[in-house]
């Protein structure tokens, strides 16, 4: 006897009773409507009889005895002639469409151009237009007449009518519409239908009935659409044209409250190798859910689909695994109910919230060899899921999966048989019926290699079978004919109640910019802007911009269907042909010829997909060099983890999921960092200069300067709150330059800034830590593009003034000309290594300012600008630029309220960094010790050669603390650290604002990890790990690894990670060198055809060099930049060139003028391998014409023609001279290296034979510390 859960049974009985009651109510309603219709029919029949004035004739029907008479009568002849005329007209007009709403003209060329523009607007091929004719107008007062267009065939007519709806998206053609060319009878019928519709609507009150009557919608013929938002009542065309018996009413319940979701399921048997085939299936069918068993995913598998959220559970070993893909537009989340958790079973659950319903969706894979215990667990999970539905946690349950019960024979409307009998199958069947679930799959789902289907292994279980329709079987995924069928179905669910947004956006690449520019040039901007304030002028400018965008730039609809960018129309057609062959094969009862054609089509489709994908990836890689966003966007589309902010924790510790509330929480967090201190008292400050900066706005903001900046704009930048796109500005640079120049001059002279320039849309960017905390996000502001152009033009004279008058400290490297991260790090490393060389300890402080850019006060900043010599006009404009700003957080279609920005410089602006370095500039005056700045990143230290030095450092810290108090900018004491360098460092303790500064063994400085022994192994390992991750990402993301693809990707995205500031972190240990080189070895093996070649052969075929040679090249380029003044470096231990040496380096006629002197280093590996010391040997050997190059690019080109590896090896064994200090004479001497000894050049004036020289120079040479001469590769060569 089958046991039934009472709760489940009661729920089932209640559901059945509800269905019966609903049917009774609907039956009563239909009976009442039927009675009303009979009465209406009788009334209409009486009216027709009255109008005709006579009884219906009882004469024989027309054509009834035609075969007897063999000749039609007069009335029959008239009917036949009318039919022939109608058919002739229909044939003639079958290829025609009529365009209404166009202006009358007698010029046929104008009409042809108009039809061509309309065709291009809707995406129709103008070459398919065969003939154009303009209808004559009845009188001269008529302004527009229809335009008849004949097309090549009926298919073209259907295509044009289908695309005609796009006209409403273009403001040029929004009053033009396209209809089919109708025959006389069709026009008369249409008139009668319109008249009847109008009469019915006059007698119908839609406000009370809730509906109105409209003409039947035929999407294949017309583009007519009702714009009324009330419910509609459709008329039946045939009944109206005949006797107008009744009018059919649309089912309001289904149209308003329900919609169909599409599901797609299969057992993939290794999806990772078929992911591109799955993408093509998705692009063609666009399902809402994809459920897949036997995914065979590994931890590193790239399995994401564009536009879908992935829930997956992997087996961990080979085989198995299940996953669910859900469209990102749907609210779906993974189920975390403890009742449904079982790590031993391959299953995954997700919950869909749609409308007022919650639906539980599951996917299972049950291997055939499951034990009794594992089968019991699966059955228990199904029971628990059903119980959750019974308890009201979910409204419905639907389960997909490969359950592997071949013994169960599922048949339509019959209890399934189990043959041969299997105990596990019987238990499973009992569970299905105990839970009152229906199994929807009735046909076999597994297909053998010969095309025959056997066994129903894949099942679909649901609580409400009435909701499932259109269940279909499709061929297996992949090229093999053997496998599991793809199952597709439609599921009736509640409609989502979310607010819909405009899903159209401008297609800037297809804009008609010639017409755009002509329209702009026709405007007299001087007159438009005359006697108006800046804000009004800019609003007029923005209005004109948006008006012209609507007029000359078409819009494209953002479909919810996520099309694959790489799938061509030809491949889509082949996919459809393949599916048609499959359905023909099924309908033909397994015709072998059709099966053969289907298999051939399947191979052709797979080949076409591969070619499309390969072509797309190659093109994307080429374009990514100039626009890296393309690469990262493609990679992100393939990653499994999406970074959407779905949930945040509010101040009360509650989880918030509403998008608007999330925006509000983030905006409140970003607002909290603003400084709201009193600015009434500003500390005194001495003037930095007696000079003044003033600019001529007519010169700085001239039309030519504005046009140049506009033409150089990056089209990939994001828009600000004024929604002005850089693509439009760039492609109309000349036309826009005049109004923008007038605006800039007007703004500067009046010290006013448009309100739209003060507004910023903020995007939250995750830093690190928990994604649920708003504190772990930082704001990225998107400001007006036009404002940035004015900032850029204003920045140039400001920077020229600051640099010419040396107003910015030479220790500031951030955002400064001839300065960079490399110059900053080389200066600090020069100081630290020299201290280590002389054996003295160093204490180095790393200071961290809390929200420095966001917290500086505006009045104090403007006061400092005045002390730097800025005149009142510039300060006035900057005051307007900084004050009254506001921001909001924008995420997709959700946005927060505006909040005021009371402090800080706008991040994302052009002038923001410049203003900040001016503000922090005087901090360097307080620090007498060696210090370096990069914007707000500040570090300083001192050599502890005297006991009092640590006291000096503490006093400096106190001065810095006082400076931050006076200028109201806070330090983050917890993040401020001190590093103690040197073996005998006393490790003094220091305080900042009364808080002890924490000691640190290492700190990350501008992307480089500095530790106290200045060894780079830790940082190199981190770089290698990051580069390997990127390499793995490339391997998983890109399907085809040819030589060109791998070479481009490696050079653009992997190698730069290994070579970042390599001049600072040059590896010297063999293990580090091999570790770095291993990344390139691994990269070159990604090309399948190169894997069996040697490393150097692979490099040659990929046109690469070893990373060691690249590092030498980088060192030489950096030395060239320094020697030519392209980079400015303040060395702690100055570099001595040949012309600067007091003693004069011995010259060789072939040596160049920039020969450098190498420092002799003993007992200090860090100083020995410092940049200047290691590069001197090969630098001094460079040919004169290379070193004397005028530009960096010329130097690089000449350098690349040298074999740097060979050059480098020659430098190791050359007869080199080095400089050293002779303690016996207290003078600098020169000598050569022999057998780990330095031999003075004085001795080389005598005969020299092998090692006998040692007997003559015992008093002169000095030992080189335990270093084999062959390993000393960086000694300086003088001659």
Q: Measure the end-to-end span.
A: 105 Å
DSSP strand tally: 45
Tell me the Rg in angstroms. Answer: 40 Å
CATH level 1 name of the largest domain: Alpha Beta
User: What is the percent of helical residues?
Assistant: 40-55%
Question: What does this protein look like?
Answer:
This protein has 42 helices and 45 strands. 42% of the residues lie in helices and 17% in strands. The C terminus is likely disordered. The radius of gyration is 40 Å and the shape is globular. Strands 9-10-8-7-23-21 form a six-stranded mixed beta sheet. The chain has a six-stranded mixed beta sheet with strand order 11-12-13-14-20-17, with helices on one face. With 1279 residues, the protein is α+β, with helices and mostly antiparallel strands. Helix 27 packs antiparallel against helix 28 and helix 32 runs parallel beside helix 34. The chain folds into seven domains: 103 residues, RRM (RNA recognition motif) domain (Alpha-Beta Plaits, 2-Layer Sandwich), CATH 3.30.70; 224 residues, Endonuclease/exonuclease/phosphatase (Deoxyribonuclease I, Chain A), CATH 3.60.10; 200 residues, no CATH class; 75 residues, no CATH class; 155 residues, Alpha-Beta Plaits, CATH 3.30.70; 88 residues, no CATH class; 102 residues, no CATH class. This is Reverse transcriptase domain-containing protein.
